[in-house]
Specification:
Layout (H helix, E strand, L loop, with lengths): L3 H6 L3 H17 L5 H18 L46 H5 L3 E8 L8 H9 L6 E6 L16 E5 L4 H16 L3 E8 L3 E2 L1 H8 L9 E3 L1 E3 L8 E3 L5 E4 H7 L5 H5 L5 H12 L9 E2 L2 E2 L1 E4 L14 H4 L1 E5 L4 H34 L31 E3 L3 E2 L9 E2 L2 H22 L5 E15 L3 E14 L2 E14 L17 E7 L4 H16 L7 E9 L1 H8 L6 H14 L11 E5 L5 H10 L8 E4 L4 E2 L2 H10 L5 E10 L19 E3 L7 E4 H14 L12 H8 L3 E12 L12 H13 L4 H8 L5
Helix pairs in contact: 5-12, 6-10, 14-16
């Protein structure tokens, strides 16, 4: 028998044996370093350090054991400090204008219609009206050896037209595809090509491309067989239109020019089909079905008795196009029928989804009680505190209690009256539709009460109290009935706006009356600090208009100019900042004489000087305002030539004698001032927009020239131009208190705004009460 000790060690014997063998092998593989080798290594390092011959330097490695205690040396002499280029590692990063470009995200679809010089002013216009609002981008192509638009033959407005120098139909199709590939290959994923002798349902084209993969090489349309022994496949009929993917365009367009001479065909569509089959070696031909999406078209030639009005709606539900059409009337009739079918389909989808929501609501924790009305619309906004409660605005058919300022009751505007008329008519129509099966006739007597509010989660909500006359078989009766209506928020769309920059030069016009002479001193001091000593001084040109009345003009002849001090100040600024002889004045000025300093009279003088071009950006300012770069940038961004004028709402200080918290530096506080909604003194607009509106107004006021004094710039743009007048609170525009001179010669509207601005600009109600009753607390 084995001894008991060995038996106990039997379990760890393999471990001990493994450790022993491992240690032995490690000793065998360890390198043996001789003393001579160490000396050679040290010598080589010493020689290397000597070869470098660096002043005030130490060897990279210690030459002996005595030098192992290394002490760092502090370099005091700046000439010996290593020079580091801090800009070396800073690379200029060029970012894309849009994040979609940087991420490689492309738009969905670009559409093109091939027309002709004979139909570009008829069928092409009809196509643009019926198809253009559905498409992200719509282009029109045709060929002509001569200039197509000359003399009385003008280019149709609002259409993107490309004219090819070829009149051959095959070459026109090739040039169209090549143009789309060259200009939009990196922008869009899908390309639609159609002809103007057909009607295209734009919503169906969008529906197809929105449900397909962009990686497929696809040629989708209405297939027709190629009758040829050499090529077996299908091409897409041109009259029905076709869709090509970007992947296919990238694969075939670099070589497609070879098809112009190498392939013969009777029609452009057959030529394209043959070309694609040849270039893709038979892989890509025309198909009408892809990923459950079907491309169908209505051939109007097959049925001579076809009537758009009476044809079955099922025929239009899946059709993408209909062909051929010969007149614009046919295009509009088809568009009307396709739109009706689309609306019916949309309502059916809404009803189906509402039923599904009802069925699923029973399985939710809230049950059917959790359903919001209308079904499918977000529930009402739930405020978290009393400041977030949305108030209801009261109105009737003519007036409302929600008015600007402190007016208790005001008349509805024309747009508000139209809105009230529409919702009342809708409510009565729905009631008639609901109770007509019960043989009840409902007529509106009047709108008793109305309430509305805007819910950010739902839209505009209405509650109407209607007085109705109900007629039944047994007689008539009158009753009051409350109805709830909701105008839900639709799909959010980005409104296309012209591109503007913050580099546009601003021409600041500053009218100054005799009463504002002292305010001009403060303004010039602020202007010098904010503009004249800054690097952006060349982008701001200030022009001062000194306004003299009849009495002040007489004093000028007597050498008693009320603006003497101000003009001397301008001369000092000219000496200080006017460095070049031929350079225009730093702050030019001019004088005008008028007893009614209206905005239009002042601007007419400016325009007549012809010192400003039509594309000049004007900023009409006030000497009581503080200007800064933020205000200038906001002016540049919000004033758009031919599109928009900007009327900022300034923050105006209260009267210092009434509001004790008012200081020299303007602070935006409720106790120091308010946003004056009745002030239209400051505005940004383009000279071309003013001249266009002024010309239109001049035609109206030929018989009465005094009308120019009864209208201000805001009313001019509102009544005599198509500009969008943008009115918004502007925190960068701060203005000191002033007492306006409300002349009765300036019209009722201007006088009313002037008086209300004076009244509300005195102070808060508390401050006014403390001023009136100082002894009461």
């Amino acid at each position: 028998m084995m001894p008991r000790g060995l038996t106990r060690c039997k379990g760890i014997m393999p471990t001990i044996l493994g450790l022993t063998i491992g240690l032995a092998l490690s000793f065998l593989r360890a390198p043996v370093i001789e003393p001579d080798e160490c000396r050679i290594y040290e010598t080589s390092l010493d020689s290397a350090n000597e070869a470098l011959a660096l002043d005030n330097s130490v060897p990279a490695f210690p030459a002996s054991d005595e030098e192992e205690d290394f002490e760092p040396q502090i370099i005091v002499d700046p000439k010996l400090k290593p020079k580091v280029d801090l800009e070396a590692n800073k690379k200029k990063v060029v970012r894309s204008r849009y994040i979609s470009t940087e991420l490689g995200i492309r738009e969905r679809l670009v559409s093109s219609m091939i027309t002709s010089k004979d139909t570009v002013s008829s069928l092409a216009i009809a196509q643009n009206k019926t198809l253009g609002h559905h498409m992200q981008k719509l282009l029109f192509f045709f060929g002509s050896h001569e200039q197509p638009f000359k003399g009385k033959n003008h280019q149709p407005a609002g259409m993107n037209i490309v004219v090819h120098p070829e009149e051959d139909e095959i070459r026109i199709l090739y040039q169209t595809l090549y143009y789309l590939y060259q200009h939009y290959n990196e922008v869009y994923d899908w390309f639609f090509v159609g002809y103007d002798n057909s009607y295209v349902a734009g919503y169906r084209v969008n529906e197809i491309v929105n449900h397909m993969s962009i990686t497929r090489k696809l040629y989708l349309g209405l297939p027709a067989r190629i009758h040829d022994e050499k090529i077996d496949g299908y091409y897409c009929k041109q009259s029905a239109g076709f869709i090509m993917s970007r992947a296919l365009m990238m694969a075939v367009m670099p070589e497609m020019n070879k098809c112009l001479s190498g392939i013969q065909a009777d029609s452009p569509d057959e030529w394209l089909g043959r070309c694609l089959l040849t270039l893709t070696k038979g892989e890509v031909g025309c198909v009408n079905t892809e990923e459950v999406q079907t491309y169908e078209s209505i051939n109007l030639e097959n049925d001579q008795q076809f009537d758009v009005e009476t044809a079955s709606s099922k025929l239009f539900e899946k059709a993408v196009s209909a062909f051929p059409v010969a007149t614009t009337t046919e295009v509009y009739k088809l568009h009307k029928r396709f739109s009706e079918v689309e609306i019916d389909m949309t309502y059916r989808k809404i009803e189906f989804l509402q039923e599904e929501i009802k069925n699923l609501s029973a399985k939710t924790p809230q049950g059917e009680d959790g359903l919001s009305w209308p079904i499918g619309v977000n529930p009402p906004f739930q405020p978290s505190n009393r400041w977030e409660v949305i108030n209801w605005d009261y109105f009737d058919s003519t007036h409302t209690l929600t008015c600007p300022g402190e007016i208790p009751k005001c008349e509805l505007s024309d747009m508000e009256k139209k809105d009230v008329h529409d919702i009342v008519a809708t409510a009565v129509s729905r009631l008639q539709e609901k109770y007509k099966p019960q043989n009840m006739e409902i007529d509106l007597i009047k709108l008793e009460n109305g309430y509305k509010r805007f819910d950010p989660q739902r839209g505009m909500e209405y509650m109407l109290d209607l007085k109705l006359r109900v007629t039944v078989d047994s007689g008539q009766t009158e009753l009051s009935h409350r109805v709830d209506l909701l105008r839900p928020l639709s799909q959010v769309e980005i409104i296309p706006m012209p591109y503007v920059t913050e580099t546009t030069k601003i021409n600041m016009i500053l009218p100054v009356s005799v009463d504002e002479a002292e305010a001009l001193k403060v303004f010039l001091d602020k202007f010098e600090k904010k503009v004249l000593i800054s690097k952006d001084k060349d982008s701001i040109l200030l022009t001062i208009i000194f306004i003299y009345g009849a009495a002040e003009a007489e004093k000028v002849h007597q050498k008693d100019d009320p603006f003497t001090v101000q003009k001397e100040r301008l001369g000092a600024l000219e000496v200080k900042y006017g460095s070049q002889e031929n350079r225009p004045k730093v702050i030019p000025w001019m004088s005008i004489k008028t007893d009614i300093p209206s905005q239009l009279r002042i601007l007419d003088v400016i325009v007549r000087t012809k010192k400003f071009t039509a594309d000049s950006l004007f900023f009409l300012a006030s000497p009581h305002a503080d200007v800064n770069n933020d205000l200038f940038d906001r002016c540049r961004m919000n004033a758009i030539a031919g599109w928009q004028a900007y009327f900022p709402v300034p923050f105006t200080q209260f009267n210092k004698e009434i509001a004790p918290d008012v200081k020299e530096e303007i602070e935006i506080k409720g106790s120091t001032g308010h946003f004056d909604i009745y002030s239209f003194d400051e505005t940004c607009f383009f000279n071309s927009d003013y001249m266009a509106a002024r010309s239109k107004f001049a035609q109206k006021s030929q018989k009465n020239q005094d009308l120019i004094d009864n209208i201000d710039l805001y009313e001019l743009f509102m009544e005599n131009s198509e500009l969008h007048v943008f009115r918004a609170v502007e925190p960068a525009l701060k203005r000191r208190w002033m007492l306006r001179q409300c002349s009765v010669k300036r019209g009722d509207g201007a006088v009313d705004r002037c008086e209300r601005s004076n009244a509300e600009g005195l102070g808060t109600r508390t401050q006014l009460a403390m001023k009136l009753f100082p002894d009461e607390t």
